Amino acid sequence: MQIVELLTPDYEAAWLPWAVQYFFFIGIAATTALTAAALAFGKPGSLSARLLPAAVVVLLVTAIAAPVSLLADLHQPGRFWHFYAHFTPWSWMSIGAYLLPLFVMLALGFCLLWWLRRERLLRLTGLAMALLAVSILVYTGAEVMVVRARPLWNTLLLPWNFAVTGWLAALGAMLLVGRWLPGGLGAMPMELLRRLGISALVLVVLGVLVWVATGSLGLDPSFPAALRLFEDFPVWRLSLLGAVLSGVLMLVMLARPAARLGGAGYSLLVALVMLGSAWVFRWVVFMSVQGVPKYGAGLYLYSMPLGGDGLLGILGMFGLCLALLVAVVFVLERFPSFNPARAGH
Amino acid sequence: MSKSDETPSTGRRGLLKDLLGLSAAATLLPLAGAAQAGIGDQPPRRPGIEGKRYGMLVDLRKCIGCQACTVSCSVENLPPIGQFRTTVLQYEVTETPDAPSALINLPRLCNHCDEPPCVPVCPVQATFQRTDGIVLVDNERCVGCGYCVQACPYDARFINHETQTADKCTFCEHRLEAGLLPACVESCVGGARVIGDLNDPQSEISRRMDAHKDEIRVLKPGMNTDPHVYYIGLPEAFVNEVDGQAGIRLIAKH
């Protein structure tokens, strides 16, 4: 039987590129929080302590940027208070609306305590923040995972992949911002960063392998759904190829000696690839998957608007991050709470 | 009161029972429901037209694809240009290479499911189901998060570009309450759409469904949503998703 669609409407994406930005920044923030909470236990001058400043800066920037993009993804942002007027414990999104401000407040508190060098309190806050960070990873993953109407999202591997690619991006972000902090790239513990990066990459690959295995055994319908897309559509094959290539590229880059990462250009490249892969992964998960019809044939064409709901929104969020970063670096230069030699105090 | 005059004792006892039942239902059940609603569970329904459970039967053999329903729905409910609460999807089907092609017209609307996946995801309880089965959106509470649009397996919901909130077919409940038929049913030239009370075995929809028990299909039964829009004459190939060649799509420019 051959079926040709003659007249079917175009169903638009209900989640805008703002959602990509939110899941990108919140993924970085939550995994950076977990990393920073662990790093806070390092002895002064240790490798962990030397990575902490970059982690704190990344945490501060992304913890502020994430809620902004979440708010913008609402079509009625002025009604955000409805979340607090009508608590709905059976909806992950409502639960998240309560977890997110708590997490952000703890993250900002953590950054402040680090700046004030209140070590004991920092570690305690770090523990509470880590707990909230885990809840953020659970809620953001579950929120998307429970959508049965989209088989590609409806898999346990999605929260996992959000978390581990988020961590990859978080480490990339630390590598990126480290150069602008007092002490520069030279003060960064590159070997530690390299090892963490490889760990994150291994976790990503592990997630993919489990997905392929469970999918092949017929336990996870999201895999055959993806396979069909790869078979039918060149654009999906291209994204598969891109994912594999960027994974291999990152592995090659991180496998090289840590000293290489000290180079300004090279470290910039590695950082951007790590950040970029995690961002593109979210773009595919949200924007490309929303282009897969729930009922109809073919794909929907998504043409990104240039305004706030599209390109300008995406650039605006990166601009916000840049502005925050500049402000933080400025403050740290004027009122340093640490110097590279005694980092972590 | 005429009933209780005939059988006074049972009537009074019945009334007492009803009152007890009613008060229990009014006080305990919603609370118990709310307390027990785990993540993803259906919240308690809100009051609707009492005693009824609305459903729609679409007889595809009678649909000529004239889009009168699409137009009358748009006139009645005024969604923005290019956005539809109901529309008729059209397909060309060729069984074998030599056979002539046939046209399949598939009217689509909200299925007013008994297990609507759009309802429990709503983070502010703006979308809800009534006891008569109708799923509605309170667009003054809706924050426009689009979660329900994602959760609906039937593409029945959309973000209205004018109100910036979730929008969908309401079975024209404002017309039903006034004793009128929904706009799409009223305007259907072939009489393909029948709406009615599924709780009433004598309603036209119940009788027709009974007469065609074996031919009735719903869309995406595997989603376990228990849709309440039923089709007669829906080919097997159209039950889950269309595996075919994509055609021209109406693209809303806004």
Task: Report on this structure.
The complex is a heterodimer of chains A (345) and B (254). With 345 residues, chain A is mainly α. Residues 340-345 of chain A have low confidence and may be disordered. Chain A has helices at residues 17-39, 47-73, 82-85, 92-116, 119-145, 157-177, 190-216, 222-232, 234-255, 264-290, 311-334; one strand spanning 2-9. Chain A has one domain: Formate dehydrogenase/DMSO reductase fold (Up-down Bundle). Chain A is globular. Chain A has eleven helices and one strand, in the order βααααααααααα. With 254 residues, chain B is of the alpha+beta class. Chain B has two domains: 2-35; 54-238, Alpha-Beta Plaits (2-Layer Sandwich), CATH 3.30.70. In chain B, the strands form four sheets. Chain B has a four-stranded mixed sheet, covered by helices on one side. A two-stranded antiparallel sheet of chain B has the order 2-3. In chain B, strands 4-5 form a two-stranded antiparallel ribbon. In chain B, a hairpin with a 7-residue loop joins strand 2 (87-94) and strand 3 (102-108). Chains A and B meet through strand 1, helix 3 and helix 4 of A and strand 2, helix 5, strand 6 and strand 11 of B.
Question: How big is the Rg of chain B?
Answer: 21 Å
Instruction: State the helicity of chain A in percent bands.
Output: 55-70%
CATH class of chain A: Mainly Alpha
Secondary structure tally, helices of chain A: 11
Count of distinct strands of chain B: 11
What is the strand arrangement across the widest sheet of chain B? Answer: 8-1-10-9
How far apart the termini of chain A lie comes to 72 Å
Helix-residue proportion of chain B = 25-40%
**Could you say which structural class the secondary elements and strand pairing of chain B correspond to?**
alpha+beta
| Topology pattern of chain B, helix = H, strand = E | HHEHEEHEEHEEHHEHEEE
Tell me the name of the CATH homologous superfamily of chain A.
Formate dehydrogenase/DMSO reductase domain
Mean pLDDT of chain B: 88
CATH architecture of chain A: Up-down Bundle
